[in-house]
Amino acid sequence: MPRRLDPTDHRAITDRLRIAGDAGLGRRRQDEDFGWDKAHAKSLLPDVLAAVSGLQERLYAEGARKLLVVLQAMDAGGKDGTLRDVLTGLNPAGISVAAFGVPTEDERGHDYLWRVHQHTPGAGRITVFNRSHYEDVLVVRVKGLAPKACWSRRYAHIKNFERLLTDEGTAIVKIFLHLSREEQRLRMQDRIDSPDERWKFRAGDLDDRALWDDYMAAYREAIERTSVRSAPWFVVPADRKWVRNLAVASILRTTLESMDLQYPEPEKGVEHIVVT
After folding, report:
1. Is residue 28 a part of any domain in this protein?
2. pTM for the full model?
3. Which of the residues in the chain have pLDDT under 50?
4. Side by side, which strands form the sheet with 170-178?
């Protein structure tokens, strides 16, 4: 049985979910609650989000470093819900979201990282990738869109690309929302049965669902081969949305705190100015 986690200890939560070596997707429970009480955990979230918001203000004011958050999940895994529940309280002037679907004709005419690099965060900003460059070692692999000799080289490309970003002052957090196959079934059925949610469902989602084991194998290898100290992967149990939200918020708080962000020095003598 997994050791209980203190829901107020965001650093311990972050450490538990960080991947170093074996991703162990088959051993990680997607419905894990870490012994938390649901009502208590939900009551903690606003304070964690307030701390993240304050840290974002420092990042923006400092105007030097950046934060890239990569969100990956299977269909119905909770990427949009995470954006809504965890990130909507941040200052919109300092955050952007980039979603990567099927490449356009123009994008296909360039290397696969070209479209991604254009959306990496500028100084003082946070950017969230809703899906990402990892699709090129996930979908491309599972659906046979390129030979193994091609996609297998991309792990090294990705690590070098992310090293470039971190060398230039970008902190990187990569989060896999680990959903169970049964929970995906329930969420997909709920979409089909709910008129207001039906638009989210595509028939192709069932094709991807049939390839579940192949996707898990692809995720496992991608995570294990690209999780490094400077750009770590975190595997977040995603069946319980309230656990997911507190876990992701804790990871963001820990990451921003570790950056030791500082407000810039004010102009000399400004403290003596009296506005009339």
Report:
1. yes
2. 0.95
3. 1
4. 95-99, 126-130, 66-73, 170-178, 233-237
